Every structure is written in structure tokens, then in C-alpha cells.
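Archive entry. Fields below.
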Amino acid sequence: MNFFVENAWIIPVMPLLAFLTILFCRSFKLYENKKISMLLTVGSTAIGLIFSSFILTWAAGHENALYQQNFTWIQVDAIKLPIGWLVDNLTAAMLMVVTSVSILIQIYSHEYMNHDDGYHKFFAYLALFNFSMLGLVLSSNLFQIYIFWELVGLSSYLLIGFWFKRPSAASAAKKAFIMNRIGDFGLLLGVVSILYFSFDWWIINNQPLLSFAVFNDVANYIFISNGPVVISLIAFAIFLGAMAKSAQFPLHTWLPDAMEGPTPISALIHAATMVAAGVFLIARTYPIFKLSPEIMMFMLIIGLITAFMAATIAIVQTDIKKILAYSTCSQLGFMVMGMGAGAYAAGLFHLVTHAYFKAMLFLCSGAVIHALADQQDVRKMGGLRKHMPAVAYTYLIGTFAISGILLSGFWSKEGIFMGLESGKHWIFLITAIIVAGMTSFYMFRSYFLVFEGEYKGETKPHMPNKVLTIPLIILAIPSAILGFVLSGSLKGFGIGSFAKFVGYAGEHHASLMLPAVSLLISLAGLFIAAIMYWDKAKEFINIDPEVIKNKFSYCYKFLINKWYIDDLYLGFLRMIFLPVARFVAWFDRTIVDGIVNLVGVTVKFTGNTLRLLQNGNLQTYNAILFSGLLIYIIAVLAYWLL
Amino acid sequence: MEIGLTHFVILSAVLFSIGILGLIVSRNIIKVLMSIEILLNAVNINFVAFANYTDLGDLKGHVFAIFIMAIAAAEAAVGLALLLALYRNKPSVDVEDYDILNG
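PREDICTED_STRUCTURE:
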């Protein structure tokens, strides 16, 4: 067992090798067989999965499991930046999630991308992403996490813009990259300021710089020696990074646009793994956040706004991937809220369950889109349950899971609610439960619109291939039971075992009140969705969504325009940013360049003038020479005599 | 009238000025060379005069004068050789024709 932990570096390195092999060996004859790329990528991930399973068992078998290995990478005077890997329970859990979800998605992608020209490129990027994500998870220190943080951003950019010939995909990729840069800058500031404020501590204790293993002591040291303001600022800077990566308000707008990428990418990167990296980062640097109640409160507020806003927008979306994207955004809001409420384990628990069921939902939507020849509008679907039962039932399981009706999402959301309750954040708790109801509403809306009723599209849907459905069915299992299994017991509604596993165990409530209320609200959401969109329920009570839409047309307009946040950004860019940029450009071209040119012109002018003296005429030289001498003599004489 | 150091110095200064004037105003290269000789001789007179009047019993000034004569002879030889070489390229003895090194 120790072998796997001590050689954990193999997990990220294998995908890197796969990436390099696909990238540089493209001209080999072997690659005329398409499957080679897929096999390389899947094989590298499979090795990772095997390692992760053993690491998980190792971590589960140890109290406070911790293994780390560091090498000095960059050394400048006393600053020795290490690179290495650190295995603890959090790493083990994340490794398992990332490898298991991504191996299924890679198999799925083989079928999904089979007829695409960029098949090899796609798998190369997938392997690159795997490398960066696994490297991020295994990072032993904050500096290394920053490197991999940028790398996942890069692979996300490449994969969003995978169909870069479509202008919308190209600009969505750019948008994602730029939005993430804002957060990355915050993270960089955070990393540097932690190093700055705790440098003495690292030197005295002779620990590898910025290592996570001793983060608790470091946070305390910074708190004691520099006070609460500094620690709050550091926490804010790091949270900014998490905000951009985890698509939190107001930096969330890139995530819905990122749906321009291929659907497996939406499932892997923009639902299951990369967007959860923000929450992972918060979990990793949690000692700092714990010392700053202001930022914890801020996190709570941002999480709530994100959850609420994304849920409201998701209600009116008609693009199936956009619905799922906004729901991802909303669920990430839940995780951040959990973190902010101090329910550390619950936030991570939701991350894990969400990764499985949201990946599955996205893969279902991918199967639907594939079957309907790239149709993404839910209004042109319907009745697909008869054509693809496997997809429909797995989607239904996912919908139940995310809505928090008894399947895995229920258990993890419970944890977050309980965290909010024990922190006495009543307003947040009530709003969060309402948002959970809204989640249930829009998810069942999408289910009814896509899989129930009559088919409204033109192209004839065809059965999805087995390669598409088998990963769905495998993913359905954790989506259904993971919450129950990890929460540890049938009796108490708690997140006992998982919480114990990742540490920071919260209070264990046995109250049945909260789960009952949230379950009721979720069922209410299901009920409203049914009477609005399910033709079988409509026979009893019928509410036409069109009527509601017309009644609250202002509301609808507000939601369909995504709270006008994109327009706000555009306005900001046009009214403030571009004029400033233009002024700066003018300043550069006129003033700065002017000064540089002036120097040149002066030199040229002086040279031209002095050139006239050197006329090559011997007599002139002599005259100048001796008149100079004469002047000197006269000056000396005058000095003597006067 | 007793001839003293002052007279020699004045003679030397006058000769020197004539030499400079010759350097500046003459166009003929031969004249320029002759002006240089005059300059050197003005300096020689200075040396010998000062040696004779102020540095009694020592011969530094005289030796210097002899050295300068030798150098002047060598310089004249080199200068004339250069002149001949120049003349082969451009048949002219006017210094104003040799201004190709202007800036």
C-alpha cells in the first residue's frame, strides 16, 4: 500500500506522458488507427484510478493520514520553492473523484467525438487536463497549486475553444480565460503575501515553503504577528481565485458561455472537476479562512447570491446545456456557502456527490444532443424516453440527486443546511432551502421537457450507442447511493463518516426537522414542474408556463437577460475601460514615444551641427587648434595679472 | 644694450607666431612643412636660451635641442616621403585639395 502513496507522482505524470505522446508522435503510422489516442489517455487515467483506489484505502486505514515528499525546485538565496506531492484524506478523496469521473468521460468521448476531425487533439487536451487537475490535487504547496491552477485554466481554454472555427466558441474561450485571469491574479497576490508575511516562520522551522502540511501553524503565526486585517486580506485574495475558478458571482459569466465546448468537456471540466478546484482551494487553505470571520461571511453571501441568481436564471433557459451550466453554478454556490458557514466537510461532500451526478447529467444531455444531430433547444425535444430509455432513466436519477430528493444530493445538501443552521444563519438557511426547491423545479422542468410528452423536433432521434450509455449507467450508481453510503448511517441524518474522513467534523444533529422541510420544498418544486410541464399531471391541474411568463414579463425579461450582468460588464468595458485604455494608448504613443523620439532627434541634430566643423581642411584645424591655445593663454594671463 | 634672456624669448615667440601663421595661411604643402620646421626651431631657441641663462653647468636644454634637430630631420624625411606618395595619387601640392577626410 505504501508503494502507491510514496509513488503518487505517477498519477499526474502518466497523463502528461500520454499528452506528449499524442502530441509528438502524430506522424507515426500507428496513429492511423484512431483508438490509439483514446487507449493512451484511458490507460494513463486507469493507472491513476488504480493508484487512487489504493491511496484511498490507505488513507481510510490511517488516522490523520499524511504523506509528503518535497524537492527543491527553484532556489534564490533563502527562498527555496519546493515541488512535490502531498497525500492526505482530502487528496485521496479528490483523486478518486477526478480519476473515476474522467475515465468514464474519456470512454464516452471516444464515441461522442468519433467523427470529429480533431479526435487526436481532443484526447491530447483531455490528457493535458488530467495531468493539470491531478497535479493540482496532489500539490504539496501553495506555489505548486498556483502552477497547476494556471494549467487547468489553460486546458479549459483550449477545450472550450475546441471548435475554434465557430466565432462564439473562440470568444467564449477567451472570455473564460480573461475572467479566470482576474481570479488568478488574486490567488497570486494571496500566495505572495502569505510567503511575505510568514517567511521568517518557514526559515525558523525549516519547513518546505508554503507546504500545506503545516498550514494551520502558519495561519496562526500570520494572525498573531500581523493581525486580523492582514489575514482577512490574504483570505480575500485567495477567495478571489476560488471565485473565478468556481464561477461565483460576479465572476460567474464565463461558465455558461463555456458550454460552447464539446459536451464531454462540459461534463468533465465545467461540472465535475475543474470548477470544483475553487472549492478544493478553499478547503486546502481553510486554516486561513477560519481565522477571518469577515471573509467567511463574505463567502457565505457570495455563495448565496450565486446559488440564488443561477437558479433563477436556470428556470428560464431553453438550452439544455445552459440549464445544466447554471445549475452547476448554483450548486457551486451551495458548496461555497457550506464552506463559508464553517461546514467544511459538507461543502466537500457536496463537491464529491455533485461531481458524479452533474457529470452524468451532462453526459445525458450530450447523448441527447448527439442523437438529435446537435439540437440543444429543449422546446424542440420531448418524448425522448421512448427512444432512449437508458439516458432518460439515468437523467431522472441525476435529477432526483441534484434536487435533493433522497438520492445523493439530498445527503450532501443536508450537510450544508445543517452547517447553516448550527451557524445560526437563518436568512441564509431559508433562502438556501428555497433555492433547493428552485433547483428541483428547473431540473424536473428540463426532464419533462426533454424526455416526456410528445417529440417536437424535426430530425428523427436515433438510439445512442452502448459506448455512450454504459458510462451513464456506471455514473448513475454513485449518483444514487454515494450520499447515503458516505453519510455513514441510516439512522442519523448526518455526514458522519465522510466528515470524519476529511476532518473538521461538524456538529452532529439528529434533528429530523431540517431534512423533512427541505425534502418537502424539493417535492414542491417537483410538483410545480410537473403541473407546468408534464402532460400526465396536466390532466389534473394545468398551469400554462406561457401565462406565467406573460404575467411576469418584466421578471422574465430580467432573467432571460441573465440579470443583465453581461450587459453591465459590456457597459463597463465600453464606458470606462475602453476610454481609459484609449487614453493610455494615446499617452504611450504621444508622450512616452515622444520623449524617446526627442532624444533621438536631439542627438541627430547635434551630430549634424558638429559635423560641419570637421571639413577635412588642414588650415581650419590649425586655426581652431591655435586659437584655442591663444584663448587659453589669454585666460591664464588675465588670471595672473588681475 | 646687453642682450639678455628676454630678447631670446621674444625672438622665439616671434618665430613661433610666424610658424603658426605659415601653417594657417599657406596652401602649398611644402610651405606647411617649412612652417613646421620654423616652429621646431623656435622651440630650440627657447631651450638653448633658458639652458644658457638659468641652468648653468648643466646640459639638459642643449641635449634637448640636439634631439629635436634629429627628430626634425627624421620628420622632414617622413613628411616628404608621404608627400611624394600623395602626389602620385593626386598631382597637387595644394592642401585644400586633400580634404577627403571631412565629416
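CURATOR_NOTE: DSSP finds 26 helices and two strands in chain A.
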